[in-house]
């Protein structure tokens, strides 16, 4: 009996490293809600698709993993825009699930080589192919939304000191003695 309880404790400890320990603050939840509601309203009142699952994923990354490389402005803004652009190029060739796979693979490889990998960018490349978005979708929708997400998350980190700094500084200060 005692060995079983020790084993259970050991199992809980070992798998706890797989669990997320990040918890959103009420400010972050309100930020997330406001942005998604605005996008829902825009999607219902314009001819564009504004509320996209990849954008929800980007907001989540910015909220819970602001220090990760995938959350930094360049991968978020450029990576997402390029991912959607790759999807649009593939859409010129064809559409459907297999073309979405091709768009995803190209996006994964290209963004990794350019060191601007952002997972929702891969999803955006597939999204554009599967939903037949407008050719201007990357520039007219994705780019401004990603800029708004990054700038608004930066503003949150300035206004609410309990939140982690976003974005990370481009260069770490030297701590060498003068």
From TrEMBL:
Transmembrane segments annotated in the record for this chain: 21-42, 74-93, 99-117, 129-151
Superkingdom, natural source: Bacteria
A Pfam family hit: TM_HPP
The entry's keywords: Membrane, Transmembrane, Transmembrane helix
InterPro entries linked to this entry: TM_HPP
Signal sequence range: none
Domain HPP transmembrane region: 28-152
Keyword Transmembrane helix on entry: yes
This protein's name: HPP transmembrane region domain-containing protein
Species per Swiss-Prot/TrEMBL record: Sulfoacidibacillus ferrooxidans
């Amino acid at each position: 009996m005692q060995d079983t309880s020790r084993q259970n404790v050991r199992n809980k400890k070992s798998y706890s490293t797989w669990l997320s320990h990040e918890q959103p603050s009420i400010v972050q939840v309100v930020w997330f809600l406001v942005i998604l509601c605005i996008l829902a309203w825009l999607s219902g009142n314009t001819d564009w698709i504004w509320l996209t699952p990849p954008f929800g994923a980007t907001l989540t990354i910015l909220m819970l993993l602001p220090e990760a490389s995938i959350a930094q402005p360049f991968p978020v803004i450029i990576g997402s825009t390029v991912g959607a652009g790759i999807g649009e190029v593939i859409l010129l060739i064809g559409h459907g699930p297999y073309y979405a796979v091709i768009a995803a693979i190209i996006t994964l490889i290209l963004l990794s080589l350019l060191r601007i990998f952002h997972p929702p960018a891969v999803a955006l490349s597939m999204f554009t192919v599967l939903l037949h978005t407008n050719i201007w979708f990357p520039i007219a929708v994705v780019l401004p939304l990603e800029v708004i997400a990054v700038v608004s998350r930066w503003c949150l980190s300035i206004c609410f000191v309990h939140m982690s700094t976003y974005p990370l500084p481009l260069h770490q200060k030297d701590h060498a003695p003068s």
